[in-house]
Design goal:
The complex is a heterodimer of chains A (461) and B (495).
Chain A (H helix, E strand, L loop, with lengths): L1 E6 L3 H16 L4 H17 L20 E6 L2 H5 L16 E6 L2 E6 L9 E4 H7 L1 H7 L10 H9 L4 E5 L9 E7 L5 E11 L4 E10 L5 E11 L4 E9 L4 E11 L4 E10 L2 E10 L5 E10 L4 E10 L5 E10 L4 E10 L6 E11 L5 E10 L4 E10 L3 H9 L4 H17 L5 H16 L21
Parallel strand pairs in A: 2-8, 3-7, 6-8, 7-9, 8-10, 9-11, 10-12, 11-13, 12-14, 13-15, 14-16, 15-17, 16-18, 17-19, 18-20, 19-21
Antiparallel strand pairs in A: 1-2, 3-4, 5-6
Helix pairs in contact in A: 1-2, 2-6, 4-5, 7-8, 8-9
Chain B lengths: L1 H15 L1 H10 L12 E3 L6 H10 L4 H15 L23 E3 L13 H10 L12 E7 L2 E5 L2 H6 L3 E4 H7 L1 H7 L10 H9 L4 E5 L8 E7 L10 E6 L4 E9 L6 E12 L4 E8 L11 E12 L5 E8 L4 E4 L2 E4 L5 E10 L4 E4 L2 E4 L5 E11 L3 E10 L7 E11 L4 E10 L5 E10 L2 H9 L4 H17 L4 H14 L6
Parallel strand pairs in B: 3-7, 6-8, 7-9, 8-10, 9-11, 10-12, 11-13, 12-14, 12-15, 13-16, 14-17, 15-18, 16-19, 17-20, 18-20, 19-21, 20-22, 21-23
Antiparallel strand pairs in B: 1-2, 3-4, 5-6
Helix pairs in contact in B: 3-4, 4-9, 7-8, 10-11, 11-12
Chain lengths: 461, 495
């Protein structure tokens, strides 16, 4: 079922929309999803869509983006209707298991049969029904529906998304790639919900690739919950490559158990208005988490990364590195909140946010924060905003490198610090290439990612 | 080096007379906690338009001043108490506060002999050099007790140079043009809740005007003391530094120990013209409440400077050791090209104290520079936050900022927080911010212990070294005082 809605007054209309289609939303969905749906809606009625008056959204007013005429798919068929393009998002030499999601709904998958035994990958809606115990244990347990209007909205409306479960002791040999594609011939409002679980002693690399295939306006609200159980190693790569009319608010809510290593990488190569809420909670001792981010903005793009690390237990370590390059009249925002709770002794938390502003009208807002209630800790944060170093430029010029090439070289070196943290070699090479092309202006000036593919075919290579 | 020598001296005394020192240390909890029995004139409790009118009438103010107050009062009624700070402040009942208290008015004081002997004794106890004959340090003092300026010293000497240093009520009467032009120009009454309250009920404060090309020959100082019970103190300071002038200004504050909380909401406005420089130092030592967190001063201060002229400079230095609650953000608006703003802060909290303090550096002019050095020390069950904003406007080319905020934690019950905001709309700006939070390393303590220093002394030594960068910015007499204060504030926080 596909519905068209016109939204002007946000809360009221979204509430009305919810009430009207509640039965459709609930149909076929697991009980827990539906129970949380109602709870989340109550919360959404109170919180609404955040404006910049909400402290956590100080630099990103989302309200205008949620107004307008949208199509909202309430069933898989509706989401896939009229979508004929074939997708070829495989990175050359990057051997991955792929799942394709179209407009927030599960479409198809490749090579999944080759996955190790016990690994569950597929549509959230279907897999939840097949594995009710698993679903009930994890779904919605990390999403802050009581405090974040957008997370509440997603929980109220979301029906489908990707589901990944790695059983105990399994090491997945290749990364699992979730390809999120937005396409169609009308403006769309999309809710997507992903659930990724790495059970004890397992290892998983998961990639979330965001693409837009047609030039329509998309407003996307996704929530991804990540669970790293004891002794697991979970790496998440989020590669955003969407056209300039896209609005994406994405919540990544992760929970870490004892002796786990979590790494999140947010690589925003191209986006319209993007807001990433990355919240990690250390639910036990001896956790290690790394949060990396790179955002390369131009035109009037707006990217806001909001990170929150909750050191709730002692002996945990967190490292955060976010770097950005702002060109034209783009706006970059960063908030890095580190909370060290009482008695979370021996915590080490490091955070760094570096930014290059290239153009007169570009803006950067950064807000690194430390909130510390334990004394035996080592926490630090650093933030810089600046330009390319004149001395370094001179050094390169003196060696006969022309100014534009020198600039690219230096910017690339600036971004490299984040790129080198990518653990999937082929992906690293690919992103390196993309970053360089992006700096060279090979594809950044086009309004839409569609232009890089031909005939509806898309390739990110 | 100085603190090392101090330490050695202390050790020497320790060996000589340990008992005496012990007594001193245990008795040194809050040495300004006495109450002076001075005849005070107060008005009834509570706040209303009537009260604002009474205050204005008591001060024989002209009509325009009353209008200024009423406008602020009416605006205040529409405002809500700010909740964004990382502070837990119980509801303040404004109807329980006396908004005006003054030592019984006396005829104009011509010499020090006319000052109430009890009052003189008070200031002697505080170590404030009111008596001009005995002054070696050469500091001109404006003493404000319970809202009213009681005595300004060195007035004549300053007048010779054309410097105006007087209470703000005097300035309202004698220099209405300057007051009309500048009062509320940097901190308008609508700025925030406490600024509006202050603008409505402020009773006194200091006014400084440094004429063109004059370098003020001595440090100017205001001493604030809350004495009477249930009173709030609302003072207002206005400093205008004309072209090419220089002044260094000090501010100190104390209050008696009481079980109830008392309110202090002040405003400081500084205006610097071309090439002028103002250095503003504060040693804030309001009563912090007792060990259980009972009593203490609520300190809500709006301090702001505007560097109007090119090449002007404002430097804030603050040592915050007192107050149950501190809410204070001395800021600089760098409007003039090449202007410079500096902020050095040490905030020490112990027991149940809460501090949310920091600065705002607003870069508007070209080639403006700012420096922020903030050192927080938290002990006991206290909460200490740094909150700052560095903003670079579109036209502020080549702005440069460096911020450093360090926090030191002494104890596992306290909190140290950092909330910096950086907003840049210019591609020529260079902004750096760094913050660290840690505790004193066991190896550092061990090193000191090995050399015969007790743990408590070792902590004092390390803390002194840690805050030195800021203390060094203070004028000499204040620096010594501030170091002692730090020691007292942290008393009993170790072990």
């Amino acid at each position: 079922m596909n519905i068209t809605c016109r939204v002007v007054n946000l809360q009221e209309e979204y509430t009305a929309l919810f009430d009207e289609h509640l039965s459709t939303l609930q149909a076929g969905a697991p009980d827990k999803m539906n129970a949380l749906r109602l709870e989340a809606m109550e919360s959404f009625k109170k919180l609404g869509i955040p404006s910049n008056k909400v402290e956590d959204y100080k630099y990103s007013n989302l309200q205008p983006f949620f107004k307008g005429d949208f199509n909202l798919a309430l069933s898989n068929d509706a989401a896939q209707a009229g979508v004929t393009a074939t997708f070829n998002c495989e990175v050359p030499a990057l051997n991955t298991y792929n799942i394709f999601m179209v407009n927030g709904w599960y479409s198809h998958q490749n090579d999944i049969s080759l996955l190790p035994k016990g690994v569950i990958v597929g549509s959230l809606l279907e897999k939840a029904k097949e594995n009710p115990a698993l679903f009930e244990k994890y779904y919605g347990t990390r999403t802050p529906i009581g405090s974040d209007g957008l997370a509440a909205m997603n929980t109220a409306f979301a029906q489908d998304g990707a589901f990944v479960y790695i059983p105990k002791g399994v090491v997945v040999d290749k990364p699992i790639q979730i390809v999120n594609i937005m396409t169609g011939d009308s403006d769309r409002l999309v809710f997507q919900r992903n659930l990724i679980i790495a059970d004890e002693n397992s290892q998983l690399k998961v990639m979330l690739c965001e693409h837009t295939l047609s030039t329509q306006k998309y407003v996307i609200n996704t929530v991804t919950e990540l669970f790293a159980n004891e002794h697991s190693i979970l790496d998440m790569y989020n590669i955003q490559n969407q056209h300039n009319f896209t609005t994406q608010v994405a919540g990544y809510y992760a929970s870490q158990k004892k002796h786990t290593v979590l790494q999140t990488n947010h690589l925003t190569l191209h986006a319209g208005f993007a807001r990433n809420n990355i919240k990690i909670k250390m639910d036990d001792e001896f956790c290690e988490s790394h949060m990396n981010g790179l955002y390369l903005l131009d035109k009037n793009q707006h990217v806001d990364n909001f990170t929150f690390v909750d050191h709730a237990y002692p002996n945990c370590v967190s490292h955060e590195l976010f770097k950005g390059v702002m060109d034209d009249s783009s706006v970059g925002c960063f908030t890095g909140k580190v909370l060290v709770r009482k008695d979370a002794q021996k915590t080490n938390a490091y955070q760094s946010n570096n930014n290059l502003i290239l153009c007169e009208s570009a803006k950067m807002n950064t807000k690194p924060q430390l909130e510390i209630y334990a004394d035996d800790v080592k926490c630090s944060h650093g933030a810089t905003i600046g330009q390319l170093d004149d001395d370094a430029m001179f050094y390169l010029r003196a060696r006969g490198i022309n100014p534009s090439e020198a600039r690219i070289l230096l910017m690339y070196a600036f971004a490299y610090e984040v790129l080198e943290k990518i653990k999937v070699e082929a992906l690293k090479e690919q992103i390196k290439g993309l970053t360089e092309r992006r700096f060279r202006g090979d594809f950044d000036k086009c309004d839409s990612c569609v232009a890089c593919g031909a005939d509806g075919q898309m390739s990110c290579g | 080096m100085r603190c090392l020598i101090d330490k050695r001296l202390l050790l020497h005394i320790m060996a000589e007379n340990q008992n005496k020192l012990l007594e001193e240390v245990t008795g040194s909890e809050y040495k300004y906690g006495f109450f002076s029995d001075i005849e005070t004139e107060t008005i009834p409790k509570g706040l209303s338009e009537e009260v604002v009118r009474i205050i204005s009438a008591k001060k024989n103010e002209p009509e325009w001043m009353l209008d200024f107050r009423l406008k602020a009062y009416n605006h205040w009624l529409t405002m809500k108490k700010p909740e964004w700070a990382h502070l837990n402040i119980p509801e303040i009942d404004f109807q329980e506060i006396i908004f005006y208290a003054a030592p019984k008015s006396k005829p104009q004081l011509d010499s020090l002999d006319d000052v109430d002997p009890e009052l003189r004794a008070t200031f002697e106890k505080l170590g404030i050099p009111l008596d001009e004959q005995k002054i070696l340090s050469g500091v001109a003092v404006d003493a404000v007790i319970d809202s009213v300026s009681v005595k300004t010293t060195y007035k004549e000497t300053l007048a010779e140079k054309g410097i105006i240093f007087c209470s703000i009520s005097e300035a309202v009467a004698e220099y209405p043009d300057l007051i009309k032009k500048y009062l509320g120009s940097v901190v308008p009454h609508g700025d925030n809740y406490f600024a509006a309250l202050n603008a409505a009920v402020f009773s006194d404060g200091s006014f400084v005007y440094i004429p063109k090309g004059v370098r003020c020959p001595m440090e100017l100082s205001t001493y604030f003391r809350i004495n009477a019970m249930n009173t709030g103190q609302f003072e207002r300071t206005l400093i205008i530094a004309d072209d090419d002038s220089y002044v260094s200004y000090l501010e100190g504050c104390t209050a008696p120990m009481r079980d109830e909380n008392q309110l202090h909401a002040a405003i400081v406005e500084i205006i610097t013209m071309e090439r002028a420089e103002v250095k503003y130092s504060t040693v804030q030592n309001w009563y912090p409440g007792n060990k259980e967190g009972k009593g203490g001063i609520y300190n809500f201060v709006t301090k702001r400077a505007i560097c109007k002229g090119d090449y002007s400079k404002v430097s804030w230095t603050q040592v915050e050791t007192g107050s149950a609650v501190t809410w204070k953000y001395p800021s600089c608006i760098l409007q003039g090209d090449h202007s410079v703003g500096e902020f050095y802060s040490v905030a020490v909290t112990n027991n149940y104290q809460q501090a949310d303090t920091g600065t705002k550096m607003i870069h508007l002019g070209k080639n403006t520079r700012s420096l922020i050095v903030s050192k927080g020390v938290s002990a006991g069950r206290s909460q200490n936050s740094y909150r700052g904003l560095v903003k670079v406007a579109k036209k502020a080319e080549n702005a440069r900022n460096f911020s450093q905020c360090d926090s030191l934690l002494l104890g596992d019950q306290c909190g140290a927080h950092t909330f910096p905001y950086i907003e840049v709309i210019n591609n020529t700006a260079k902004i750096e911010h760094e913050a660290t939070t840690s505790k004193i390393g066991e190896d550092q303590i061990f090193y000191c212990n090995q050399r015969g220093l007790s743990t408590e002394d070792a902590v004092a030594l390390i803390v002194n070294g840690y805050v030195k960068e800021v203390i060094n910015q203070l004028p000499m007499e204040f620096a010594v005082e501030a170091q002692k204060l730090l020691q007292i504030s942290l008393e009993g926080s170790v072990g």
